[in-house]
Structure formats: structure tokens, C-alpha cells
Amino acid sequence: MIRDVHHVGIAVRDLEAACGLYRDALGLPVVKEGEMPSRGVRAAMLAAGGSSDGSVGYLELIQPLEASSPFAKFIEERGEGLHHVALWSDDVDGDVAKLRDCGVALDDPEPRDGFTGRLSYLAADAFDGVQLEVVEPEEGLTGDRPATESRIKRIDHVVLRVPHPATISERMASWFGIETKRTFQRGETSFAFMRPGDVVIEVIGPSERPAEPRPGEIAGLCFECTEIDDLAADLKAKGYPVGEPHPALQGGRIVSVNQSGACGVPVAFIDFTGSPGPPPR
């Protein structure tokens, strides 16, 4: 059973520099930090607000310490940025067994103990280049809301750019029971939206699979926030490359930080104050 998006993993060159934005400027509390010698990394988990039912999404910042680390290879090939989306499982052994039965390619054919809990990575090819993880989080990373004065309320949505959105929709439904809630087309681009829990997964790509498709990627991260004008002004004052808040298609107002100032991550913030708010689950 997939409950939600548990966390979004970000590969960074310098953990402390990354914390300068996510911890210091945005006020997201660090709830776990340490090294994983088996993966050759140092990592930090930051709580990204909370939802109406008390659950909390997380960011996992990952700095490779060794050239042999898969995260070092990722940074070498793609640069810093969004590395994986972790789906929150209540039964990771059962979910991974189902994936094996479906013939899904897995980097971890059996769940293993990791930094965030008991987990298994799917092979990137399983989602056309997008790296997914299934995790049954450890105690302490299961939604207790830490005290914080951050304007960040929660992770609103994560964007996957893929060769063919319809294929990803089929796999999400078949492998995880995550149904697509809405689709539409704009020009030659298709959009599909699914919501396993509180976080929306937005999938975009060509309407027809190209003959030579580019590998998929995690292409964006958006937080729900409050006081968006003050947030944008504070980030600008701290030297971050921030745009101007403007109306969002989802309702409310949105503003973005250029990925050059966010460790390679296209980050946006959306404020639903004064609008009907995000669509219901």
C-alpha cells in the first residue's frame, strides 16, 4: 500500500551549502543527519512542513564522499539536482515482491536497510529514466510534525518529465495502485496528474513516444507556502535568484527560484491564500 510521496532525494556537492537554502533560508528543520559508508555518502533529512492529517514530507540531501558512490556518478553525468522520488510504503517487502512478480527491473531485488528506513530502488529504466524508491520509513521519519516557524507548509507537487506520460500512468496504476486523476494536452505536450496521498505527482512529456526518446528526469519541485511576497523578498535579500510572484494555473500565486541558486533543483513555491486552494484528494 503506497500512502504518499515520502521524500524527494537531492544529490548535492556540498551538504552544508545545500542546507544554506533549505534549512537556513526556508527554515526546514533537519531531523536526521549522518553518513552511510556502504553508499559512500553523507545525508540529511529535512521535514518539509505538514499536511492536514499531520503527515510530513521530507527532503533528503545527499552528498557523495567517494568517487565510487552512485550519487557521485549522478552528479558527474547530470550535475547537482533531483535524484529520486521515494514512495511511502506500509509494507515494502510486499510491494517489492509484487514488483518482482510484475517483472519490474530493480536495483534492489530485496529491500535493504537504508538511511530513511527499509527501502528498495527501482532501476531507472523502469520509469524511463526517472529514479523511484519504495521506502517503509524508520521510526522518527513517519510524520511527526516538528516545531518550526517556516513559511513552507508541505510539498505540493513534484514534476516528472518523461518520454511518454501515458506509459508512466499505466505503470503507476499497475505496479502501485496509484491512479491518474486528470489528464490534458497542450499543443504536443501531455500532462497527467496522480495523487497517492497529500503530494501530487505531475507527469509531462510528448503526446506520442518519440522514435529516439530522451531519458526521463525529475524536473521540478514545488512547495506550498504562506506569505509568498515576504518569502520571495527574504530569498532575494539573501541573494537567491528569485522571480516575482504571479498567478498560478492551479489557483493562488507562484514564484520560482532558478535552479542555479538551489543546487540544480528547479524550485517553486505556491500560495493558495485567497483562492479555493489545491484540488481535493
Please, could you describe this protein's structure?
With 281 residues, the protein is an alpha+beta fold. The protein has 2 domains: 2-137, 2,3-Dihydroxybiphenyl 1,2-Dioxygenase, domain 1; 152-271, Roll (2,3-Dihydroxybiphenyl 1,2-Dioxygenase, domain 1). Helix content is 19%, strand content 38%. It has helices spanning 15-25, 70-78, 92-101, 165-176, 228-237; strands at residues 2-11, 30-36, 41-48, 57-64, 81-89, 112-113, 117-121, 132-137, 152-161, 180-186, 189-194, 200-206, 217-225, 246-247, 253-257, 267-271. The strands form 2 sheets. The chain has an 8-stranded mixed beta sheet with strand order 2-3-4-1-5-8-7-6. Strands 10-11-12-9-13-16-15-14 form an 8-stranded mixed beta sheet. It starts with a strand and ends in a 10-residue tail after the last strand. The model has no long low-confidence stretch (mean pLDDT 92).
Relevant terms:
2,3-Dihydroxybiphenyl 1,2-Dioxygenase, domain 1, alpha+beta, 8-stranded mixed β-sheet, 2 domains
In the sheet with the most strands, the strands line up as 2-3-4-1-5-8-7-6
Instruction: Please name the fourth-level CATH homologous superfamily of the largest domain.
Output: 2,3-Dihydroxybiphenyl 1,2-Dioxygenase, domain 1
Q: Based on CA inertia axes, which overall geometry fits? A: globular
Tell me the β content. Answer: 35-45%
CATH class of the largest domain: Alpha Beta
* Mean of pLDDT: 92
Report how far apart the termini are.
17 Å
What is the string of helix and strand elements?
A: EHEEEHEHEEEEHEEEEHEEE
Structural class: alpha+beta
